[in-house]
From TrEMBL:
This is Translocation and assembly module subunit TamA. The keyword Membrane applies. Keywords: Cell outer membrane, Membrane, Signal, Transmembrane, Transmembrane beta strand. It comes from Salmonella enterica subsp. enterica serovar Wilhelmsburg. Residues 187-263 form the POTRA domain. Pfam families: POTRA, POTRA_TamA_1. It is found in: Cell outer membrane. Interacts with TamB to form the translocation and assembly module (TAM).
Amino acid sequence: MPHIRQLCWVSLLCLSSSAVAANVRLKVEGLSGELEKNVRAQLSTIQSDEVTPDRRFRARVDDAIREGLKALGYYEPTIKFDLLPPPAKGRQVLIARVTPGQPVLIGGTEVILRGGARTDKDYLALLKTRPAIGTVLNQGDYDNFKKSLTSVSLRKGYFDSEFVKSQLGIALGRHQAFWDIDYDSGERYRFGPVTFEGSQIRDEYLQNLLPFKEGDEYESKDLAELNRRLSATGWFNSVVVAPEFEKSRKTKILPLKGVVSPRTENTIETGVGYSTDVGPRVKASWKKPWMNSYGHSLTTSTSISAPEQVLDFSYKMPLLKNPLEQYYLVQGGFKRTDLNDTEQDSTTLAVSRYWDLSSGWQRAINLRWSFDHFTQGNVTNTTMLFYPGVMISRTRSRGGLMPTWGDSQRYSVDYSNTAWGSDVDFSVLQAQNVWSRTVYDRHRFVMRAQVGWLATAEIEKVPRE
């Protein structure tokens, strides 16, 4: 029976404490700006069931306020609590009146750099970010400075770096703080040989994708660029290139190992659609992202509807000297159209040579052949065209897989002359632009513009397309 009474008493205490917690509200006075923000962040760690008017809760609040102020250089605040009488309605208020006190000021920021960091411009630039003598201490600045040193070491290949000493000294009697950092970056690593495992493409093609040379100083952005370039070829389903640290501790020459898996050799896609100009239609495509060890690829597609039938193919041949940015492209197609007052059979073939420039622009020269038999109204013509051209284009975007900003530009010039077998003399200039912008994260605007100029004396012989 006494045991039962004891349990009942504990239960009553718990219920009483919960009831009080639900009726007490904490209010902090005397702080503003960053001080208030930082103290609120510390107080947010206190659970709602801990809120009571007793001394234990006040001690918890006192500690949180002091921690929040200490991080911003205020080590000696005065904190007084005042529990207001219970109001007629609402919760009882516990007020914490805070006087921050005299701040601790920066008295010195000694940072010693050893190893390669002594002459590295990025490390030297960090020294200029230290707070000025006499400014109020912010422990976040000290922590961020140390993180920045570590970040540079990882980014630039100082993989043996270490803090010989790192200390934030506080002299409360003088209200001063002193940085004391001794940092040894060690020797900077260099890129070693790169090997690949699991690739169906010749190794010399992969080696020519490297954005660095063996012996170059390590840069994490170069490693990321290599992973990106390998993925951009379209040859692989997965790509992981990583350093082999265990082989480089003594020599500081960092070999890389790339593990890749081939993309599916054949991909077939089908679809059914409807549009107002051609009605129902069936689409199909067949893609071979790689056909041989040279990285050649093939894409074919067809679209069939009652008034229009289209068959296209594209064959890409990367060049060994730069497989991603330099290549030949052979394209061809057949299109039959019976729409409105136009009947047309069109066969095309084009050979293009592409270069991707470091500026982001892509340029190409091409040679096109086309054979068209078309009837438009009462006019019937058969035309064979053979014409060279040049083209430059650029596509930019921001926002990753769901771009919030982007544009596409394409400019081309084509010229045909009967001197080399074409049926028509003409010159064509075209400009195409697409802009995409996102406003307030919810609204996307897409604008398109296309301008063309055609100069010819025999307009009736020029195919509609």
